[in-house]
Design a protein that fits this description.
This protein is an alpha/beta fold. The chain has 5 helices and 10 strands; from the N terminus they run βαββαβαβββαβββα.
Length: 211
């Protein structure tokens, strides 16, 4: 199972968490987010990042030119699109050799057929809890609705995953479940991850994957 730790911004914290070897680290470029990296965010923040960890830039309704420029500046292999980006937008971005994670806000009435137009363009979908506006809520959705997803694009499960419910989430049996997106439940403050919590949850996920 893939693991993604999202919402980092401080160099020391990035270095510490990268030592735990998650598959992805996410950096938020949405100014309204409490985990926004800030205007002074620098490439130097990645100086100790192992090359095998994929860096992900997170964007909300940004234009293709800015997403591309930021991804190239910081060496992001992936762009996570967390807004209302269209299939055409994703296709245009993919032509710039940027891999895409497309987030979808999930509630009990979500129609998974809307994901079909994104298939073949996105490397992963990210299924997150629907909230007012954009971004994380720290809350999970009813995972049983995932049974309705019959697409071929792998997805990461997101939304309120923490030490208290990660074991329950790993009971989900879905052929396209590729991993877990982890954020606010593992923090000491917005944008600062708790090393011990991250270590514990990654170990829990990895032990389960071996069984």
């Amino acid at each position: 199972m893939k693991t993604k730790i999202c919402g980092l911004r401080e160099k020391e914290n990035i270095a510490a968490i990268s030592g735990l070897k998650p598959d992805f680290l996410g950096f938020i470029f949405y100014e309204k987010s409490p985990r926004y990296v800030g205007k002074d965010f620098s490439v130097e923040a990645f100086s100790s990042l192992p090359s095998e960890i994929e860096k992900v830039g997170v964007f909300v309704n940004e234009n293709v030119e800015n997403v591309t420029a930021i991804c190239r500046k910081f060496g992001f292999g992936f762009a996570q699109l967390h807004g209302d980006e269209s299939p055409a937008f994703c296709q245009e971005l993919a032509q710039n050799d940027i891999k895409i994670m497309k987030a979808f806000p999930i509630d009990g009435s979500f129609d998974f057929s809307v994901t079909e137009a994104y298939a073949g363009t996105c490397s992963y979908f990210l299924f997150d809890t629907k909230v007012e506006g954009f971004g994380g809520s720290g809350k999970s959705f009813n995972w049983s609705i995932l049974e309705q997803y019959t697409g071929s694009t792998p997805f990461l499960l997101s939304g309120g995953l923490g030490l208290e419910n990660i074991t329950q989430s790993m009971k989900i049996q879905h052929p396209m479940l590729a991993g877990y997106d982890l954020n606010s439940k593992l923090e000491t403050s917005p944008g600062v991850k708790d090393y011990e919590k991250v270590k514990t949850i990654l170990n829990t996920i990895r032990k389960h994957a071996i069984i």
